[in-house]
């Protein structure tokens, strides 16, 4: 850009060097003002972040992302405690409260947002995982659990054909048999729960918000894993469930309809499910059993013979017992009772299997992100809980399904 000294156009005779000097002075003044404005913006930004941090944490500690902190502020930042705590904190609830209070002390990402680093913590709650694992009803049925920490893919070898025994005459050569082997893979798939909690609940020791966060997060992750193992569609990040895999061409899982429009099941139907597994020569290792919706279990419990006597229980007010037809069973509301088959929409699905042939892979840690900023305008803190899991069928012959059961 050309700079013209005042009066030069009127012929007042400013020398060329005076024009250059004037232009340099103007440029220097503009640069100084830009620096001052940038510094003022930085100071204003840091002050805003400081006030947000003070308001959210209700504490005197002023902290920010590590790459934005001056040395003095870094000294005031609360140190991160190890997940293996020795300071009297117990359980997931106290851990969430601690992370919440120290949230601004650690950057969530190396990227820099419009207002600087994102001050969000990540922590590990191992006790949470242990409780979650024990609460999965599929592991209670006997599904195998595999630790997926530190692996991009877990390969599980399996035998697809047994060896063969032959009678051997004296002096004869033993016939060689060739057992076949295959593999099933588990891939870590992220599963997450995100909740928004009012700040006043997290700040108050007497509130049970943290207990709610723990129970809700664990419940939803548990529910998602169990449902995916049964009905996962395989789209996106979701695993393929048993029922979906049974519908794939060539699957060895027996999946039989009870009728074009469904029908009420009889004991012969579930006896046939047992027969499917036995006829496939699947070894029963103590994990065989039925899985029904709770309504279906009540339906079987109310079955009567021709004389009006209960078949599976002694009295109207007695429990059905721990077994049906000599096989143990479990119930869950994750199996729907409103499936549409033909013209009827009151159908459910019945499962029977040797559940040790279902693999559940899961990370051995839960990661917790506490973000007091995204929802700060509504005085809430956003908490994200996530882990990695996957499910897979090891031997398809070990499962049998009946669908279209009107209960």
What does it look like?
By secondary structure, this protein is α+β, with helices and mostly antiparallel strands. The protein has two domains: 1-57, no CATH class; 66-109 and 119-164 and 174-407, Major capsid protein gp5 fold, CATH 3.30.2400. The protein is 32% helix and 24% strand. The chain is built from ten helices and 15 strands. It has helices at 16-57, 71-76, 91-102, 126-135, 137-141, 199-203, 209-231, 242-246, 267-279, 294-301, and strands at residues 121-124, 144-147, 154-161, 180-186, 189-198, 254-257, 288-293, 323-324, 327-332, 339-341, 344-354, 358-362, 367-371, 380-393, 399-406. Strands 6, 7, 8, 9, 10, 11 and 15 form a seven-stranded mixed sheet that branches. Strands 1, 2, 5, 12, 13 and 14 form a six-stranded mixed sheet that branches. Helix 3 (91-102) crosses helix 7 and helix 4 (126-135) crosses helix 7. It is elongated and about 115 Å long.
Summarize the topology.
Layout: H1 16-57, H2 71-76, H3 91-102, E1 121-124, H4 126-135, H5 137-141, E2 144-147, E3 154-161, E4 180-186, E5 189-198, H6 199-203, H7 209-231, H8 242-246, E6 254-257, H9 267-279, E7 288-293, H10 294-301, E8 323-324, E9 327-332, E10 339-341, E11 344-354, E12 358-362, E13 367-371, E14 380-393, E15 399-406
Parallel strand pairs: 2-12, 6-15, 7-9
Antiparallel strand pairs: 1-13, 3-4, 5-14, 7-11, 8-9, 10-11, 11-15, 12-14, 13-14
Helix pairs in contact: 3-7, 4-7
What are the low-pLDDT stretches, counting only 5+ consecutive residues below 50? 1-14, 55-90, 104-125
In CATH terms, the superfamily of the largest domain is Major capsid protein gp5
Strand content: 15-25%
- Determine the mean pLDDT: 75
Total helical elements: 10
CA-CA gap between termini: 84 Å
Question: Architecture of the largest domain, according to CATH?
Answer: 2-Layer Sandwich
User: What is the approximate shape?
Assistant: elongated
Report helical residue fraction.
25-40%
Number of strands: 15
Count of individual domains: 2
